[in-house]
Sequence to fold (487 residues):
Amino acid sequence: MNREQLAKRVLELVTEIAPDVDAASVIPGIDFRDQFDFDSMDTLNFAIALHRELGVEVPEAEYAQLASLDKCVAYLGERVQA
Amino acid sequence: MASEFRLPALGADMDAGTIVEWHVAPGSRVKRGDVVAVVETDKGAIDVEIFEDGVVREIVVLPGEKVPVGTVLALIETGAGPEAATAAPAPAPVGTVEGRAEGPAPTAAPAAPGTGGGGPDEARFRISPAARRRARELDVDPASLHGTGPGGAITLEDVEAARREPSPAPAPAPAASPAGAAEADKAGMRAAIAAAMSRSKREIPHYYLSTQVDVAAAVDWLAVHNASVPVTGRLLFAALLLKALALTCRGTPGFSGFHRDGRYEESPAVHVGVAVALRGGGLVAPAIMDTADKPLAGLMEEFRALVTRARAGRLRASELAAPTIILTSLGEDSVDAVFPIIQPPQVAIVGAGAIVERPWVVDGKVVPRQVLTLSLGADHRVTDGRLGAQFLARLARRLGEPASL
Fold:
């Protein structure tokens, strides 16, 4: 999965968790929390979705690295199997 | 025998709902707990469950119709033997009996069912004996009628008119533009919140207490727990709070129950409601049923499902009507403390701010600790500050022993 595909997949998962978020309006460099009130429940759901869909188990201590789209892509890029 | 399945009230501020769809048709077999209809309310689309087993005999209210709380939506053939037949000489609103036993009475609703399972609470509306008899014969719910007699009394004519007049033409289907519908939903929810909170501030003499709690033990326990389970088994701090609060309610009466008709009644079951903020604005507070009896893992699973459904606008009627007390947790990155407003007819609400690192004195030394400010808004008609302080202190103590939750 290249960077672009990964970003697209992550966005799909984010909008699955927050269906009222318009994927096209998500700004990659800004934290989800600041853009659309992503809270701890959303983050947990996101971690569960990443595990289910991409096979990546993100430890709780590393949640901060999932805070924005850019950070997700950087973090997951090294961990997702091709 | 047939029983009436009625539109349940979902709290003090709901007085009507629009049927969106039926999941059943005449002849469908239903069992207790089945979601049979979707109803659009100011709190979003709600799944309405049925509370008995039987077969649907007739759908009375069709999709698109907006009807007041208490209206008979469908008739259910319960197929009960002579036992049930003798047990129910009065046309009790069976469809809501169970939910009512656990939830707050719809105080604002015209069709407020009585407590404790007799017939309908007929004292709440005036109706002539002849009209009442005729209403029974015709399966018309007097509570759903607008009386035109003296003092708003329901007359025989009102009952006959209700029978003659089938439902008004189905309302236009959902607003043409989704954006318009969303705006309307938002306005409706805002109005519902305004009504409930205004009533609360008007009627309930609140008193407020708060306390700062060192939650390092709970935070550490949680981190260890979450590192040792698969991602689906992870807990949020709020799950600990929910369980600790429910257990505290059980040991300290006066906070989990309902104040109705001038008196307080402790709820035998503790159903903690969770205030869930919706992204578009507004909030709902559905309950986790029997919160104190659930192991943390199960409680967390339900909590997660509940928040998901709340945000998707798919709550169940019983969940909205049930809370005996509410927890509002503002969560990480927010403020230190919240002083929440009680949702009538409840008598208490507990608030939790963000967990923050603060200088704390431990064994004579100042050390950084994880600190949480807990607050209690309680009804002075029911309890005093002394008991409230005990309640909050007990809650804090339970949080200090996370392994026992």
About this structure: The CA atoms of residues 65 and 75 of chain A lie 7 Å apart. Chain A touches chain B through 20 residues (CB under 8 Å). The mean pLDDT of chain A is 91.
